[in-house]
Automatic annotation (TrEMBL):
<dbReference type="InterPro" id="IPR054402">
    <property type="entry name" value="Tt1218-like_dom"/>
</dbReference>
<keyword id="KW-0472">Membrane</keyword>
<feature type="transmembrane region" description="Helical">
    <location>
        <begin position="20"/>
        <end position="41"/>
    </location>
</feature>
<protein>
    <recommendedName>
        <fullName>Type IV pilin Tt1218-like domain-containing protein</fullName>
    </recommendedName>
</protein>
<keyword id="KW-1133">Transmembrane helix</keyword>
<dbReference type="InterPro" id="IPR013362">
    <property type="entry name" value="Pilus_4_PilV"/>
</dbReference>
<feature type="domain" description="Type IV pilin Tt1218-like">
    <location>
        <begin position="40"/>
        <end position="108"/>
    </location>
</feature>
<keyword id="KW-0812">Transmembrane</keyword>
<dbReference type="Pfam" id="PF22150">
    <property type="entry name" value="Tt1218-like"/>
</dbReference>
Amino acid sequence: MPRPPVPAARPRRFRPRGIALMEAMIAILLLSIGALGYAALQMKGLSASSSAMWRSKASHLAYEMADRMRANRAGVVAGAYNALGAPETVTDCGAAADCSPVRMAVLDHGQWNASLANELPGGSGVVCRDATPDDGSAEGSACDGGGTMLAVKVFWTERGVTSRLVLAVRP
């Protein structure tokens, strides 16, 4: 007797339950958190790089003033660099005319402060005798006139905070 034909298996009906969608949403969430972390790390790196750049410029400018003082040894010995007041514009000496060591110190101080103002945000500086050189701010240099070293103090502002760099120079 012939066998009756076997009915074809009924395909199972697929009921979407949202599992794949949930997995995709969790994967997107984790990738988003990772991307935000990476962006925060990049911002922190840029901030540190910017701070290092300003400190490097301030260091370069402090050494520039120290070099000016080494070039004008007579002005240093005469005390001409010690706590010069507000920067002055000197036109009666420099490359075209001879000038005294004291006037050269005033010229150096004026040119140096102009460089500080141009190259650093809120940049200013002072050269003075100071027994405690690691104090002071842009508003008040806190030079006490004591000590055996000249302090080259550079001040600038970054992100609303005043920063300071001090270089001690033996007269």
